[in-house]
Amino acid sequence: MSETSVLIVGGGILGTMHALSAVDRGYKVTQIEREVQARGASLRNFGLVWVSGRAKGRELEMALRARERWEAVGKRCPAIGFRPNGSFTLARTAQERAVLEEAANGPDAPTRGFTLCEPDEVRRRNPALQGTFVAGLFCERDAGVEPRLATQAIQAYLTESGNYSFLPGREIREVSATRAIDHLGNQYRAELIVVTTGAAHVGLGAEVLGSSRLRRVRLQMFETEPFEQQLTTSLADGDSLRYYPGFDLPTRAGLQAQHPQAQRDHMQLLCQQRLNGSLTIGDTHAYDEPFDFDLDERPSDYLVDVLSSLLGTKIPPIARRWAGVYSQIEFDPEGPVYFRESVDDGVVFVSGPGGRGMTLAPEIAEETFA
Ligand SMILES: Cc1cc2nc3c(=O)[nH]c(=O)nc-3n(C[C@H](O)[C@H](O)[C@H](O)COP(=O)(O)OP(=O)(O)OC[C@H]3O[C@@H](n4cnc5c(N)ncnc54)[C@H](O)[C@@H]3O)c2cc1C
């Protein structure tokens, strides 16, 4: 039986940010991960700390606070690669431009740091954008981190505190008040157990996480060889206006029909340049299980065309492709932004932040301890 103040189950970004919040409060923390290293959604994402399209109200407030927390974590732990690079959402049609204009004139535009830019101004701020678009919405609050590095970098930083240990290769099979048991029969006693097992809706906590308010979503992504130019901002195309609740504005109803490929796979273009120059590009959304186990080429071909037309040049060859799955709470503008349930005294399950989990993780963790 090993003893600790706080036991975190799950080695992804949600668990790791909980570990950071707990260590900062002076607790002794043990974090357990079933793989040798986490390899779920937390490493497979764009690393976008995304404020621009968040629903007004609590979701936006959380995203703004989380973004500040990411910046602070970046100062303590530079290896996460935090950069306050802002983003451009680019309109390619008059209808998309109308949505950008409405957003730029909205009451919370200053909070989000929105500026509507004509193409010349877009190119001045991000000279790599030499292609075809009619306007860009700059969001000053958007930022980026390195998803393949961030989780492990924070864990390495925590290890130096002397109050943290990471135990890989152990799957927790059972949790009850103040006690957890792994697949080897090892027992852990803790005052608080935080379960952050991501999109694993079966096994541990199946009754809790298998609830109908949580669904799983599969995304396809890819990354290119290094691009010779620097993208000074993150990028989104006009299709992203269809999905983000912050753009649920009257002009959105006037958007042109979506390209059949984008419509089929519920796609938008998002692109973040990595610190080594390569471009992380996505994404698709599949909601019906069983999910495909293989990767479909057609969405990638489509996104390569869209990004090339915005950049006005061919993008480098694709170096790698992958899919990822996240857990998402049912969207309800009045409801919770993520899933949290206390199942026993001292056991709390936290999941379901969906496509905003990387962004919100530090704020969600703070809420758990607050
Ligand atoms: C392709 C893709 C792109 C995305 N892009 C973005 C983005 O740019 N910005 C953004 O804000 N969000 C993004 N998201 C969402 C974000 O990545 C997720 O919401 C977030 O990473 C979820 O973190 P997590 O720690 O809950 O889950 P995970 O990263 O899945 O971690 C859960 C961990 O728990 C472990 N585990 C499970 N069961 C057990 C057990 N019984 N015992 C021990 N360990 C266990 C798993 O092995 C896993 O490592 C994206 C998601 C995907 C899939």
Considering the chains and any ligands shown, give keywords for the structure:
globular; alpha/beta; FAD/NAD(P)-binding domain; eight-stranded mixed sheet; 18 strands; D-Amino Acid Oxidase, Chain A, domain 2; 370 residues; binds flavin-adenine dinucleotide; single chain; 2 domains; flavoprotein
Can you tell me the CATH architecture of the largest domain? 3-Layer(bba) Sandwich
Number of helical stretches of at least 4 residues: 12
Shape: globular
Percent of sequence in beta strands: 25-35%
Tally the structural domains: 2
Terminal Cα separation, in Å? 28 Å
Q: H/E series, N to C?
A: EHEHEHEHHEHEEHEEEEHEEHHEEHEEEH
Bound molecules: flavin-adenine dinucleotide
Residue share in helices? Answer: 25-40%
Give the biggest sheet.
8 strands, mixed
What is CATH's topology name of the largest domain?
Answer: FAD/NAD(P)-binding domain
Determine Rg (CA atoms, Å): 21 Å
State the CATH class of the largest domain: Alpha Beta
Low-confidence stretches: none
Secondary-structure-based class equals: alpha/beta
What's the CATH superfamily of the largest domain, by name?
FAD/NAD(P)-binding domain
> What's the average pLDDT?
97
Question: How many β-strands, per DSSP?
Answer: 18
Family: Belongs to the DadA oxidoreductase family.
GO molecular function, one term: oxidoreductase activity
Keywords: Flavoprotein, Oxidoreductase
Cofactor: FAD
Short summary:
By secondary structure, the chain is an alpha/beta fold.
